[in-house]
Amino acid sequence: MAKINPLLPGKLGNPELSLGSDPRLDPRLVTLFNQGEAMDEMLEESDTVNAGSSYEEAVAYIGLLEENMHPFYEALFADIKPVTNVTRRTQTIIDADDHEITLYIHEPSNRNGPLPCIVHTHGGGMVMCTAADTPYVRWRDELAASGLCVVGVEFRNGAGKLGNHPFPAGLNDCARAVQWTSFNREELEISNIIVSGESGGGNLCLAVALKAKQEEWIEEISGIYACCPYISGTYDPAPAELTSLVENKDYLIDASAQAMVKAYDPTGEHAKNALAWPYHATVRDLEGLPPHTISVNELDPLRDEGLIYARKLAQAGVQTISRTVNSTPHGGDTHMLSFIPEIYYATIRDISGFAKSIDSN
Fold it and tell me: Looking at the chain, which runs of residues are DSSP E strands?
């Protein structure tokens, strides 16, 4: 029997805990993680790969996981009333290589004058999911309803149905979308640009800022808001400083996260490249960046990499806010609307408030 220390959180205190049995989890989510059939299927698939899997095995796993995500997403948003007073349109832009990028633009129907703009980079570990998936459409709607113009980027994934396009294809698409948005400020009637995303999208929004600084167009970005960012690229074995990888081991994310790394960077040549894995940015790399908010989830294996990145930003003199959304797993506050609505809307308000506060400075 495993030794239990009730003074330590999660699996640091009790290695036998699961996400559903962790006493820190919001009680409204217990049923979802203990009994939800869609979630069970997703977790079963996550056991099919590990850090030693081949590139082909990693890509195959991601395809299966992506298929299982859709019914799970539909369950999370079942019976939720649609957002009203928001208009939606699509825009196709072309990059330097004649590659088409679809943008999804959401804005308030009754807008009057310039609005802050969110360029949204969706989650999925940079290797799966699409901007057209239910959680991301809803997210853009909610942000638009709060008084923002929102541009969602359909970037190339490392795997899945929009793959296989390893780093830096997806990052390049996101950077191009930000530059297009900036160039078209007058037409879009926007006042500033915040780049924001969750999980893999959190990686991409942070990396866009680093890329913009390197290429000397960082002044086009007013701020960054990253939720539960997936940014270290090293998960098996866990680095000693990332305690949350042990504390919250296998809570939605397990060693298969390293398989996603392989799909994004097949040869491993970019393992320490901050544009691929922003966690490895130096304090000097971060100097001169615009204001950032880093939001993490208490019960997320990825929690500490986000918090450490926030500390680096502060050390670099960047105006930085970090927040921990307690009682939630990875992405809980950005996806689980039907279970924990007030937590979901608290993050919507925080992103909206962040964008508007920068706009008023």
Answer: 86-94, 100-108, 115-121, 149-154, 190-198, 223-227, 292-297, 320-325
Would you call the peptide bond into 278 cis, given omega within 30 degrees of 0 as the criterion? no
Cis peptide before 168 (omega within 30 of 0): yes
Distance of alpha carbon 283 from alpha carbon 311, whole angstroms: 9
Provide φ and ψ at 325, rounded to 5°.
-90, 100
Residue 93 DSSP class: E
Question: What share of the chain has pLDDT > 70, as a percent?
Answer: 94
From residue 13, give the alpha-carbon distance in Å to each of 18, 27, 273: 12, 20, 34
Tens digits of residue pLDDT in 12-50: 999 999 999 999 999 999 988 875 444 445 545 445 677
pTM for this predicted structure: 0.95
Residue 2 has pLDDT above 90, yes or no: no
Half-sphere exposure of 151 (CA within 13 A, CB side): 32
DSSP H helical ranges for 47-145:
55-76, 134-145
What 3-state DSSP class applies to 147? coil
Coarse DSSP helix, strand, coil percentages of the chain, rounded to the nearest 5 percent: 45, 15, 40
Q: Which one has a higher pLDDT value, 32 or 187?
A: 187
3 state DSSP class of 191 = strand
Strand partners, 356: none
Contact 209, 218 (CB under 8 A): yes
The set of residues, in sequence order, having a beta carbon less than 8 Å from that of 268 and lying 6+ positions away, is 262
- Distance, CA of 151 to CA of 183 (rounded, Å): 13
SS3 169: helix
Mean pLDDT of 269-278: 97
CA distance 138 to 190: 21
62: Cα separation from own chain's centroid: 17
